[in-house]
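Hey all, quick one. A colleague (J.T.) asked me to put the uracil job into the tracker so the inputs and the structure tokens live in one place instead of scattered across chat threads. No bug as far as I know, just bookkeeping. Sequence used:
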Amino acid sequence: MALARNRLDRFISQEMDINKRDVRLILAQGRVTVDDVIAKNIEQIIDTFSHVILDGKTLQNNMPYYVMLNKPIGVVSATKDKEHKTVIDLLKESDLERGGAGGIDLNDLHIVGRLDLNSSGLLLLTNDSRWSERLTQPEKKVAKVYQVVLQNSLYKGHIENGVEGYVEAFANGMYFEYENITTRPAQLKILSEFVAQVTLVEGRYHQIKRMFGRFRNPVVKLHRVSIGNLSLDNNLSVGNFRLLTDVEMDNIDS
Ligand code: URA
């Protein structure tokens, strides 16, 4: 859901189908609350999630939702797809199994940073576009951490400077001709001969696969373990989801 912003007087006028002069009077009489505070200023700006009440009657009360999903391989990070099951299909199925997930309108959700079809792990969905923008703008430098299994040994091969060659190339950034950009510094930690941990602050198309592609080292498995301060919940089995707590939602990029 886009975070539509509107002037309070315009919103009430549209909702109640009354003219702005009458709205001004209603506001002056203190009959309207926005998020439990009496609102008298006609110019007050409200958004999709402002809770607006007039004379005890709720005019607007949309809830923001923040969902963590343990994405399986083979499910596409999209809301609709002709060929593959989507993450929204998955939520619908588990929602049915669980007998409802607190009244979330699944059609309002959008994905915060996609994962490829054959990638797995932490995927976030929300109906709050301001929150998703906060997390996806590269300038905000929210770290996304991935565990990567490679086809070829990270210790040997044709790479100049061996392991250090990889680490340096990721840290320096790589030029992607198609987009005409250089990737932002990425952190590469070699965990074992075939396993690495990569930390990105952006999400270019197939970024990690393309970065290892420079070394002719195909990615065999790619699993996102965290976004900012939020790690994938170990209790969430593959394909399952849960709502974030308020603290998780607030602290993710602090
Ligand atoms: N990089 C990739 O190549 N794929 C992903 O799914 C995420 C990051």
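Adding what we noticed when we looked at it: The pocket of uracil is lined by residues 115-116, 119, 206-209, 222 (CB under 6 Å). The first strand starts at residue 6 and ends at 7.
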